[in-house]
């Protein structure tokens, strides 16, 4: 069966979606034996254009590491369930960091705060908001129960209840929806 179609973003045809968008899965898929810097540098070698020198790719990767607030742990092993390493929030930021290397215009985050405490959740999301503002990146994040502090970082909101959209608009006006539809948003 042959399928066809076209990829459009903001009404414009896109040849390759991977150059314009990125997707960060809920579960971090990282090599536990690598350091933060090694993981990001290796990804930069694979993702960034061949027109960049290895030194330019390394510099680009180091900049993204700094933007995500990971410079202090750049030399630390990622670790995993068996071997000690960086925290869960730092692991999530490494996953996001790797996807940000290609400077996507659009980034999808599947449960970026899953398994994190409220402080780590806020730290992850505030870094993403800062990068989005600096780079003009659109961020679409699926989050089930954001804390009040994380919720206040959102600009736009698509609120679902029982699989149906009950609100789509500015996040700051969502409290009105809570009253009208008796939907818990905090």
From TrEMBL:
GO terms for molecular function: ATP binding; ATP hydrolysis activity. It holds the Pfam family ABC_tran. InterPro entries: ABC_transporter-like_ATP-bd, P-loop_NTPase, Plant_ABCG. Residues 3-114 form the ABC transporter domain. It comes from the Eukaryota. Keywords: Transport. PANTHER family: ABC TRANSPORTER G FAMILY MEMBER 11, OS07G0288700 PROTEIN. Belongs to the ABC transporter superfamily. ABCG family. Eye pigment precursor importer (TC 3.A.1.204) subfamily. This is ABC transporter domain-containing protein.
């Amino acid at each position: 069966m042959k399928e066809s179609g076209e990829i459009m973003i903001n009404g414009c045809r896109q040849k390759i979606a991977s150059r314009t968008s990125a997707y960060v899965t809920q579960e971090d898929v990282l090599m536990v034996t690598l350091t933060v810097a090694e993981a990001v540098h290796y990804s930069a070698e694979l993702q960034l254009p061949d027109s960049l020198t290895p030194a330019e790719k390394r510099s680009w990767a180091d900049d993204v590491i700094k933007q995500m607030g990971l410079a202090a742990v750049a030399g630390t092993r990622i670790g995993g369930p068996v071997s000690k390493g960086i925290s869960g929030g730092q692991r999530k930021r490494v996953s996001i960091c790797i996807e940000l290397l290609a400077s996507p215009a659009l980034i999808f985050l599947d449960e970026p705060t899953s398994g994190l405490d409220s402080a780590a959740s806020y730290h992850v999301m505030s870094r993403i908001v800062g990068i989005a503002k600096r780079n003009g990146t659109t961020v679409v994040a699926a989050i089930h129960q954001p804390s009040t502090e994380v919720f206040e970082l959102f600009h736009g909101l698509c609120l679902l209840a029982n699989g149906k959209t009950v609100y789509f608009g500015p996040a700051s006006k969502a409290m009105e929806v809570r009253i009208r539809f008796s939907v818990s948003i905090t």
